[in-house]
Amino acid sequence: MKEWQSLAHERWECKYHVVFVPKYRKKVMYGRTRKKVGEILRRLCRQKDVEIIEGHAMPDHIHLVLSISPKFSVAMVVGYLKGKSAIQIHRQMLGVKKGFTGKHFWSRGYRVSTVGLDERAVRAYVRQQEELDRQESLDFDE
Q: Which H, E and C letters describe 35-57, residue by residue?
């Protein structure tokens, strides 16, 4: 049975698989940075009542399975997450106190797809990213 969420006058189930990357697809998601970016994204999602169902940070990109209320567009949520997290990353990790104009952490675009009926498969895919990436790398080397 599906777990429908509800607001005052609506019931909904809107889940999306979102992927975004750091500027120039730099491999920066390691150790402390990876943990801190995860904390920042979780906090920002809570502020907008967006649920992170599954998430995984790779060295050069982030996968998220998000449950987003229909009162928000996916573009607005992703823009909010990328914009606010970039400011917090610059503040907390890079020591920038003011003047965020022209500072970038994330690349301009993002990838999004609806989860639909294959939620289990999408969640497993997000969870297994590192192993899949490692296997593709080995296949490429052969």
A: HHHHHHHHHHHHHCCCEEEEEEE
- Residue 23 is predicted with a pLDDT of 87
Superfamily of domain 10-141: Transposase IS200-like (3.30.70.1290)
Compute the average pLDDT of residues 24-50: 90
Domain map of the chain by residue range? 10-141
Edge-to-edge strand list for the sheet holding 51-58 = 51-58, 61-67, 15-20, 111-114
Q: Which of 24, 80, 110, 125 is catalytic?
A: 125
- pLDDT tens per residue across span 40-86: 999 999 999 999 999 999 999 999 999 999 889 999 999 999 999 98
| Whether the Cβ atoms of residue 16 and residue 112 lie closer than 8 Å to each other | yes
Collapsing DSSP to helix, strand or coil, 5 comes out as strand
Q: Is 24 considered catalytic here?
A: no
State pTM to two decimals.
0.78
